[in-house]
Each structure stands twice: as C-alpha cells, then as structure tokens.
Amino acid sequence: MGIVTTVSLNGILVDQLDENLRATGGIARGLPPDDSARTPPDGDDLPAGAPFGPGLPFGVLVAEITDGRVTSAAVLDRRGTSQPVPSEVTSALLDVVVGDRPRSAELGELGSYRLVAGERTEADGDTVTVVTGQSERPLQETLSTLVTIEVVVVAVALLGAGVAGAVAVRRELRPLEEVAATASRVSALPLASGAVELVERVPVTNPRSEVGQVGTALNRMLDHVGSALEERHASELRLRQFVADASHELRTPLAAIRGYAELSRRGELTEEAAYSLQRISSSAERMSTLVEDLLLLARLDAGRPLERVEVDLTHLVLDAVNDAHVAGPGHRWLLDLPDEPVTVTGDPSRLAQVLNNLLANARTHTPPGTRVSVGLAPRDGGVVLTVVDDGPGIAPELAPRVFERFARGSSSRSRESGSTGLGLAIVSAVVAAHRGTVDVTSRPGRTEFTVTLPH
Ligand SMILES: Nc1ncnc2c1ncn2[C@@H]1O[C@H](COP(=O)(O)OP(=O)(O)OP(=O)(O)O)[C@@H](O)[C@H]1O
Ligand SMILES: [Mg+2]
C-alpha cells in the first residue's frame, strides 16, 4: 500500500508540476526583453538577464538560449528578486529540446529541477529558446513526509498486529497446556504392572477446534491404553490363577505317587523293579518341590499377604548353616554373627527358605572344599545378610538374569544337582515381599549374595 501510494502520488505531483511548468513557460516566453536591465555575470554565474515579471511562482528558473549559448539565466527567490544561476548548469540547460515533454535534471547546488523549453520570436525575427524550470524540492519534501508517515503508521500497525496476534494465539492455545499436563500426568503413572486405573482425561471444551481435536484424540488414545492395560492385568491374573490352581491340583496326585512308590518298595522286588521304584520316588519328590516352588511364586505374585511376626534372624542363620553343614560336609562353613540377636518383622518360614536357597546354591554349584561364609549385621535401620563363597562363580552370561525364573547354569554340576532355576527367583520374590533388596556380585573365586531387609 505504501509503495503504491508513494508511486502514484509521485506521478500526480509530477503531472501537476509539469502542468504548472507549461503555464509558467508561457508566461516566461511572453516577457519582453529588457536589455537595459541585464546585469553582467558575476564570477561563475550566468548572466542574470531581465528581472522576472509578475505572474511567476517562487523558485522558477528562466534561461534564454540564443545560437546554442545561454544568454541569461536566473531563479526567482522567495523575496521576489532574481538570483544568479551558477555556470556549471549550462550543459543541462542546453540539453533541453524544444517541444519535448518536461524532464528532470540535476542543477548542482540548485537541486533537481523540471525543465521545459519553448521558443520566442524577437521583434527582429530572431528565435530565442526559453528554458523554464521549476524546483522539484517541494514535491520531494511532500513525498518524503508521506514516506515518513507511512513508515511510522506501518511500524505501529505491525506492532499492534503482532501484539494482538500473540495474545490471540496464546489464548487459543491455552487448552494445549491442559493437554500437555494430562499427558505428563499419565506418563508419570506406573503402567508397567499391576492394576492401573487410567482416569486422566483432557477436558475438551470445543471439540471442533484444532486443540479440541488433539484433546479428543488423546482421550481416545487413553481409552484404548486404559482398556489394553485392563486386559493385560486381567490376563496376568488369569495366568497367575492358572499356575496357582495347577500347582495346587498337582500336589495331591504327586503325594499319592510318592506314597504308593514308597509302599511298593517295601515288598519283595526284583533289582530292576526296585531301581524303577526308587527313580519314581525321587522324580516325584523333585516334582513336588517344583510344584511347591511354583505355588509359592504364584502366591507371591498375587500379593498374598505374608505372615508378619518378629523373626530372630540369628537363630534362622544358625539353623540353616547347621543344616547345610549336614547336607554338605565337604564344604567349609563359616559364620559371622553379631553378639546381639538380630530381628526383623516378616514371615519366618519364607525367610528360612531364602537362607536355604542361598546356602543350597553355595553348596550345589561349588566343588567340595569351597569355603562359604554367612554374615549377618544390622545396618541403617535394617539387616544385611551376606552369603559369600570362594567357588568358581556364576557364569558371566547367566549373571545378569540369575534372579529370573528358570534361569540356571548349564554346568554339569547344576545338571546333576537336579536344579530347576527357581531358587533365586524365590529369594528375590520373598525379599521383595519383605520390601528388601537382593544383589549379587560374582567372579571366579568370590560370589557374594547380599540381602538387605528393613526392620
Ligand atoms: N553360589 C553360586 N556359585 C555359582 N553359581 C551359582 C551360585 N548361585 C547360583 N548360581 C548359578 O545360578 C543359577 C540359578 O540359581 P537358582 O538357585 O535360581 O537355580 P538352581 O540352583 O539352578 O535351581 P534350584 O535352586 O531351583 O534348585 C544356578 O543354576 C547356578 O548356575
Ligand atoms: Mg538354587
């Protein structure tokens, strides 16, 4: 808009100036020559010629050219007197062709002028070329004022539009903050396990706006995620229930198999039959242990409450090490117990199982002669139990997942001990149910299990 206005105003003003110039040229050519009034040129100035007659506007330039020579040139100043014109403008004055449209020219210190040429026939029949000019300065001043105004107006308008736009955009997008807040609240929820109630939703005021659509889409996604999580939890529950039921149901027939195998072994038997029955007994026994372990894990998974009584850990450790000593007389069993009895609140039989599993590992996965030391110490409002052996250590590829279910080593030692890989999984689950932690560090020559239990 600014550029178009400026260009068209420039055109209009130049047209007006040219119009005036033509009129002025007519007046100037009509002036009678007055030789008596001619003043001699002063230094670099052209001869001033006759003083201006009436009817000429201020700033007008009149020059007379005879035979390709500027015979006189003067400018009418604001006081109505004619001022001399410097001689450097001669060539510009001579360039103006009679009959051409007015043209612009730079006249040195006079500034830029619009010039037009006409002819006058003297009384003696000579033709004199009269060049009339009008200063373009008023026009340029008008234009530069206009440009200044335009720049200021545009700047103010841009600023206003910017501020208004920013305010409007911010107000429009405010609901987006609500969307972001909901998304981050949801991401803070523990979705990985257990029952999750996904109640967070974005409040959508205008579902047709872009932000409303984002909110609606997010809500729809949360609905989907919520139902997927419910489905996941339900199937987890079903699986746990299934494992628990299956283990429970297997107990009775297994007990029956063991009982009948035991009973049959008492009669008169061939060597082969006795061997078979002995295998049946021991396999059934292993299977019973496995089923018991699975049942325990299923119950711990289901979050069945444990017994919570005061447990004397010192006592438990003593018993467990004594049992281990009997089971593994080839190993060297060391004890490091504090003088004071150490107690925690928990389930005594489960804690005993933790100890037994750790000691059984130290016994079955190490060669005879291995030294196993069991330590117990109170620490920061809890208890630390350590089982350290100087056996061959846990295989490095197994180490990161020893606490997983059915994770067991492939060494012949593990195989011949009939291991199932549930021992450490049970340790981990029982300790977690007591809100404790269990860690292992292992390298050849030193394997250390550390169990911390809160009081
Ligand atoms: N003290 C240890 N020294 C060397 N390896 C160990 C030790 N404790 C555990 N491991 C390795 O970790 C594996 C997993 O142990 P975990 O007690 O879970 O199962 P398991 O002893 O094989 O079977 P389960 O205890 O159910 O009879 C073992 O198979 C064994 O390879
Ligand atoms: Mg074990």
Put the structure in a nutshell.
This protein has 3 domains: 2-135; 175-304, Helix Hairpins (Orthogonal Bundle); 309-454, 2-Layer Sandwich (Heat Shock Protein 90), CATH 3.30.565.
Structure description:
InterPro entries: HAMP_dom (IPR003660), HATPase_dom (IPR003594), His_kinase_dom (IPR005467), HisK_dim/P_dom (IPR003661), TCS_sensor_his_kinase (IPR050428). It is an enzyme of class 2 (transferase). Its EC number is 2.7.13.3. By secondary structure, this protein is of the alpha+beta class. The protein has three domains: 2-135; 175-304, Signal transduction histidine kinase, dimerisation/phosphotransfer (DHp) domain (Helix Hairpins); 309-454, 2-Layer Sandwich (Heat Shock Protein 90), CATH 3.30.565.10. The protein has nine helices and 13 strands. It has helices at 2-30, 90-94, 137-187, 210-264, 271-301, 313-327, 348-364, 412-416, 423-433, and strands at 60-66, 69-76, 82-84, 103-106, 112-121, 127-135, 309-312, 332-336, 343-346, 371-379, 382-389, 437-443, 446-454. It has a six-stranded antiparallel β-sheet. The chain binds adenosine-5'-triphosphate and magnesium ion (MG). The site of magnesium ion (MG) has 5 residues, from helix 7.
Question: Topology of this protein?
Answer:
Layout: H1 2-30, E1 60-66, E2 69-76, E3 82-84, H2 90-94, E4 103-106, E5 112-121, E6 127-135, H3 137-187, H4 210-264, H5 271-301, E7 309-312, H6 313-327, E8 332-336, E9 343-346, H7 348-364, E10 371-379, E11 382-389, H8 412-416, H9 423-433, E12 437-443, E13 446-454
Parallel strand pairs: 8-10
Antiparallel strand pairs: 1-2, 1-6, 2-3, 4-5, 5-6, 7-9, 10-11, 11-13, 12-13
Helix pairs in contact: 1-3, 3-4, 4-5, 5-9, 6-7, 7-9
Domain HAMP: 170-230
Pfam families: HAMP (PF00672), HATPase_c (PF02518), HisKA (PF00512)
Enzyme class: transferase
